[in-house]
Amino acid sequence: MKPRSLVDGAALAAALAPLVYAALRVGARLLGPEPDPAAMLWTERSSTLDRLSLTLYATALTGSACVAIARKFADRMDSIVLAACAVSATALFAQGALAP
After folding, report:
1. Three-state secondary structure call for residue 44
2. What is the pLDDT of residues 18-45, one digit of tens each?
3. I need a surface site. Which of 9, 40, 69, 85 has the fewest CB within 10 A?
């Protein structure tokens, strides 16, 4: 395995992290209402930290697929990462506008 494919795969996984976060946030919003923010300040566990840790875990799981994509399409990784950034930004904006 080339070290460049590991770097490209990591870049692709990092570019897809906001998309994963937006998908998890919309999924949580569809499954139930968000608790009262004032009550959340005084709890021992924050749902925000739970969502961020779940996003990190899900992004790490997609990392191996991203490395495989980087190995297969090594010559086009610049445009693939750029497209992934655009899709992730659009998904994060849509999530923030439609399901805050």
Report:
1. coil
2. 999 999 888 888 887 766 666 666 666 6
3. 40
